Amino acid sequence: MSRSRAVILSGSLGLGHEMLVRSCSALLEHSGWRVESLDCMGLLGRRSGAAGERLFARTIRTLPGAYDALHFAHLRTGSRLAAALDVSASARLTPVLSELFAREPPDLVLSVFATGASAAAKLRARGKLQAPAVVLCTDITLHRLWVQAGTDLFLSTSPAAGTSVLRYLPRANVAVIPPPVRPAFYEAPSKEKARAELGLPRDASCALVIDSGWGFGPIDARVAALARAGVFVLAVAGRQADVERRFRALGAADQRVRPFGFVDDVPLLMAAADVVVALPGATTCSEARVLGRPLLLLDGMPGHGRENLVHELELGDARVAGPAPGDLAEAALAFIEARRGAPPRARVPRWEPAFVDALTRVGVHLLSDSATGTPVRAEGTSGAGLVGVVGGPGGVGGARGAGTEMEASLRRRAASPGSPADGRQPQLATAQRS
Predict the structure, then answer these.
(1) Cut 0.85: pTM above it
(2) Residue 433: inside a domain, yes or no?
């Protein structure tokens, strides 16, 4: 008997999409599925994909105001410019995907990249894709390119994000789940064990600084300022070779700077830190919250990054540092001092049960153990399972419910968190997220 096959549509812009692919692939493969990840930027063609990557990177680094304008005035509103961008990308991507899907039909298409989400929805609407088309987005707002008719299920990671889908498709099938995080973060060692393994002083102040792939701002000057202030710095450059070289130069001059390039043992580094310094990318922030590490965020990512920043502050245990290197050092010392002796934060629920439960709404059934066939299920009303659902189980065409009832449902759920299910599909149910 052949195994079910999932195709994940991603994109080579930053590391966040890659980490989502890793998280979802691990769960699907553990359930006995074959998984193939496709880079939509690469599928656009060598010239178009590379030009798109360069343009995106250059715009957000050197013209952040221009990207803010694109995001807030066009992508969010679904302007004519946004529609033109979507048509241009889809015209290149949909024929390629159509051919790939015809050659080996998938049983599930999961899009974690907006361009892929739009292309898969169009193929589904035209009958060129027989498998469910599912979108997973961890931003606080899904812009117009994410949300297209033809998508069977939208997975968001907050009630606000779930509601944003209904702006474009009022009857969309939306589920709200905890943010996907790789299993290693749930199994990370204690701070004491992590520091012993890394050779760090037990009682010293320590910050993990992560460059998520963009090299925003004077990151090396910020690391240097932290070290001068007496903070041990675990400086992760990701795949930015020039940033890594600068970090290593700092490490050669100051033993408090521990430089790294692209590493897979981020859970160990994060466990050793008192605070995580990063851009407000949803993946890094979610990982830090699983480990109970506070976030000191840099307001350097335009567009969706500014929305995500506000969301992380609202979730708590997060602050924003000023733009100057000295601002970061002062903010880090103050944050670490304020958190000393603070009680541990409540455990963050695992995301897998909610993800699995949501997929059953489109006829996809995953198993937690391919050997025993034990299904993963949401844990009732405990908050560790399905976070929220809007719409009916029939996909986009059969969706039920109205977004106007979401807030009222939230309040009802919050007022009686332990109440039993009444057998009806809820409009929105709230999970416990710290």
Answers:
(1) no
(2) no
